[in-house]
Design goal:
The structure is a homotetramer.
Chain A (H helix, E strand, L loop, with lengths): L1 E9 L4 H11 L3 E10 L4 E9 L7 H16 L2 E6 L6 E5 L4 H11 L10 E3 L5 H6 L4 E3 L7 H14 L4 E4 L8 H6 L4 E5 L11 H8 L3 E8 L9 E8 L6 H24 L3 E4 L2 E4 L2
Helix pairs in contact in A: 1-2, 3-8
């Protein structure tokens, strides 16, 4: 059985030695270790992948011992994950289909190891895509008046389907604080600019007006401050004076879908940790 | 003789046909033509390279006829350039030597077709580089008190040496409005961020704090608004949580020197035009 | 009406002037002109986009006059295209679905201005994708014995549906000379390496073995020599020692689909010309 | 004192635990650990950076204990390095100055922590650069007749100056087997193509002829097979039909110098290991 352990704690001597000794003593074989020290904050981060013999493997006992023998002593925040179940990913969309198609085709070919309980949208437009892939589609419209009902319906669906994390695949609607607090560092957004440049609405128009020679896309965890959450992944492509705003939008679509998919994969593989509004991305 | 013509004028039917007909009628051979229409502003831009037989070629007559036969009719702003003389480029530096070395080594190998009458600095530190390359070095210090004398000395040197354009090769001092107005779209700066992100001081520190995954450098013409002039060239490189601020600075240096040199080359080859605070970069 | 003209001919003085004069005389308005001279071969290439008033526009007359007034004199090869009909694109696939999904989702959102009369495959596996998008799917199996029948069936389908060009979207079967000769510079392939490195089978395995730090994908027109046709588009991504062959394959998929789609768009917009086994890609 | 340990050995359970335990037991503090397992070869690689208290630190004792307590048991190949001395780097050049200037300006600004005992060339042309930087320049000409004397002189200089590694900064002369065997994985070359494409002479000409849309540069350790040694670093830039061979060469120069400098820095920081003709590049 493959076991992933994520740790962060105040930095001090001997952590790696203690943790690797613990795995060894529990008959695990470390197949990957990546660690990072944030020197300004004096915090230690580690991601470990280990193989444990399936026979007689007791996850609860491992967790209990980890807590007792390591976590208390080193003041660790930690989590242990196995590959025995797939995380449940909800997709929120509006009217653009490119990110949705990209994620669903990866899901279909087995590249994304998740379950997709439903697709939710504030518009009815993309139901046909959900139908193509046989995934339930919930249309939860939003207006100034029904804001609270809409949020309540979102939360109710997320709970009913036991959703683990949410991907905003070009969902053009502000996500409520309630939702953000229910899913801290578990809502992944794609913003169609090279953040922090051009945060907010209409970034391609702003980029065109400024006359930049490169445009980008940024995937980040959603926090209460708009477009200011921890960045997971960014990529860019060149533009020139020959490109119109609609060329920017068209070139940008290819960035958006690739950048969002990479971020989702990193999250699913538990290769991301968040600290001080920044991410550590393990290799 | 190689002749470059740059034109901009209100867009209308027949401009290309008229201009190419003019060249043809004057026994020129068009070896390159690039044109662009800014549709929102309805402005036409063109860059033409032509070969004219050197014998009997009369530049002044060509200009006179161009004005009479084309420019008046089409309300053109235009300029005509030949390769018979090299532009004079002044280099302004402070303490970092990487952009300076990069430009001087290109100059030395003939890659940059310019003259360099002098290097000017607000610090004495880089005189040794100027000495290595046998170029005059003027130390013009700046303080709150001597601001006006400093600017006057700069202007006097620029006039005395008939400087055509100025390159700020990591010159860490605000350039005065007087200088900017004397050299409109003729002062090239390198800013060590992917503008408009992280304008102003200490962009690498700001990028580090924001946790971006890509850093950049931007070369632009200097205007009165800080770091907001027309962008000539940008490039980027990836970073990760493993990089410290000093890694950002070190990786950024390679971007800065390459991006600045590309911008300088574009300017020297007269491949840049400025309109509405944006550049057209001809291919 | 938008009219695109593609020209190539021996280089000589006055071509641009004559062609733009012709357009002007026929009441067309040039909205874009890009030209290139291959100096070693002394050949001139041009792509023109013009607007003609729809009322009274006579395409056949324009072609006749173009031939008479320009083409004969300058020994031009040329073609004239309008946007009044969409080209018919056949998709050939095998078992991988990523390029297919990518092209179909672009088709669906209107990004690709083509008709797709059918998808053809040497395997039955991807019929479900064709069904999702309501496009006919023809399974034409290939074996050593049925080679000729297979080719005949391909050709018969292509003719029956009046296919204009073919996209090999990871079609893992050698295309016959007959087909290549029927569709010269009209069959677009995606090869999963940075050609000319790693031509032939299993390029990711070869790249892994060589220990490269960057992998690529190449889209090209198919010629009789395997993986040696004119290159339309290439792109790359970084890899490291931490990546396995299956990581190469996974990262490569994102390159393949983006690079292939870009090439298809360039072809559809008639921005490609082929000469001496190389492409001119107009901007 | 900063201590870097490099290890490779057959993979087995418990290595990380044993090594980190050893460091801990010797009062070292691990500040960085990166490990890699080549699963096809079943080989384990590790790079460790540790801090040891300078007082009472005994490097020889540490090495002796490492050998006795770890290396014998795990069949390790290993090396231990401290930052108490700088490696000696010889530069071999021919006629191009861009890589040379780039390395020397980095050396000058403290970015490259090495000593440069001399520059050696088969031509006299670049002596002026050596003079600018006050570094000895040895002109060792090569012809068919004097091949052996030339090689002997090279070796004699390398020994006399106790050179640790050699950088071929566009040295256009085949390096002898004797030299390669004296400096295994210690001669760094820059090849001006995206290897394995266009190995051998005149790669830019070959790339131009093939009509590629991207060109590259590759830095690698020199082995007896030409341009086939372990790749350290690669980078690329886009080209188009508008670029001539001399444009390829000019754009390529910027790649060459950046790629070579990155490789040299990785080598100096002992972040490279070679196995099966491939490199592991630690982060």
């Amino acid at each position: 059985m493959k076991v992933v352990i994520l740790i962060n704690c105040p930095d001090q001597k001997g952590i790696i030695s203690s943790v690797t000794g613990f795995i060894h003593a529990n008959n695990g074989n470390i197949i990957y270790l990546d660690q990072h020290v944030d020197k300004s904050a004096d915090v230690f981060f580690m991601r470990l992948e280990s193989d444990f013999d399936g026979d007689g493997f007791n996850l609860e006992l491992l967790k209990k011992n980890f807590q007792k023998e390591l976590a208390v002593n080193y003041k660790m925040e930690w989590s242990i994950h196995t590959d025995s179940s797939k995380p449940k990913m909800a997709l929120f969309v509006s009217k653009y289909n490119h990110c949705l198609y990209d994620l669903l085709s990866r899901f279909n070919s087995g590249e994304l190891s998740v379950e997709i309980p439903f697709i939710l949208s504030n518009h009815p437009d993309l139901k046909y895509v959900a139908d193509q892939f046989n995934i339930p589609y919930f249309h939860v419209p939003f207006s100034k008046e029904n804001r609270e009902e809409g949020e309540a319906e979102q939360l109710s669906l997320l709970k009913k389907y036991k959703v683990d994390f949410i991907v905003l695949a070009r969902y053009m609607q502000i996500v409520s604080s309630t939702l953000i607090n229910e899913y801290p560092n578990k809502i992944i957004n794609i913003h169609h600019s090279f953040l922090p440049a051009f945060a907010g609405a209409k970034p391609y128009h702003a980029a065109f007006k400024r006359g930049v020679k490169i445009i980008g896309a940024t995937s980040h965890y959603v926090t209460e401050e708009l477009d200011a959450g921890p960045i997971i992944e960014q990529d860019v492509t060149t533009v020139s004076h020959t490109h119109t705003i609609s060329d920017f939008i068209s070139k940008g679509r290819d960035l958006e879908k690739i950048v969002l998919s990479r971020a989702v994969k990193l999250h699913v593989l538990r290769k991301t940790m968040v600290y001080n509004n920044k991410t550590i991305i393990f290799s």
